[in-house]
Amino acid sequence: SSIMAASLMANGRAAFDINSENIVVTDNSHGSAHPDRQETRRRAVGIKNGLKKDGSTRIPVITGFIGSTPEGEITTLGANSSDYSAVLLAEAMGISDVYFMKDVDGVYKSSDSIRDPNCLIREISLDNFESVEGNEKLLCKSVKEVARVNNQRLHVVHFRNPTQIGTTITC
Questions:
Q1: Nearest alpha carbon to residue 44 among 87, 103, 14, 104
Q2: Quick one: pLDDT band at residue 29, thresholds 50, 70, 90?
Q3: CA-CA distance, 17 to 156, in Å (whole number)?
Q4: Using CA atoms in the order 160, 111, 89, 101, what is the torsion angle rounded to 10 degrees?
């Protein structure tokens, strides 16, 4: 996260890095830890308060998939949990739009149509997204559960073209 934050700052963007183990509180089930969403929400207040500095909005760059127990022991949330960390922290800070940088431009009608711009889905409901072939490879079940509970909008964009319109998944 520190390298990404430094890169953003070198390109004129206000950013700061955060180690997620200081924010995401979990049980001690290493490799598949379950977050304590209430305690994570309490700790995330500091991030939200740090978003504004000197009149500008700063971008928080947060490590994914890592948390810690209440005693401070490092844990991991499991497979695909960087995205899970993102929706959890968005939930904790009351943020409704979450962006996922992927190696595809967005959600496609089928795995056979990946890279065909005519098959890119610009907007899709979460219910319909769940019926798209390969959706579980793009966003894991935990991400979809948190997004649905919080009515979050999930934006899938290519990491090389983050300003290009990808796919918005609505709840």
A1: 87
A2: very high
A3: 22
A4: 0
Task: Kindly state the tokens that stand for 149.
Answer: 């509970």
pTM: predicted TM-score of the whole model, two decimal places: 0.85
- What burial class does residue 43 get, using C-beta atoms within 10 Å of its C-beta: 0-12 exposed, 13-18 middle, 19+ buried? middle
For residue 20, what are its two tokens?
């997620």
Predicted confidence band of residue 66 (pLDDT cuts 50, 70, 90): very high
- Beta bridge partner(s), residue 98: 154
Tokens representing 77 are 């949330």
pLDDT in tens, 97-106: 999 989 989 9
At residue 20, what is the residue type? S
Closest C-alpha among 117, 147, 149, 118 to residue 135: 147
Token duo for residue 117: 């711009």
Largest interatomic CA distance in the chain? 51
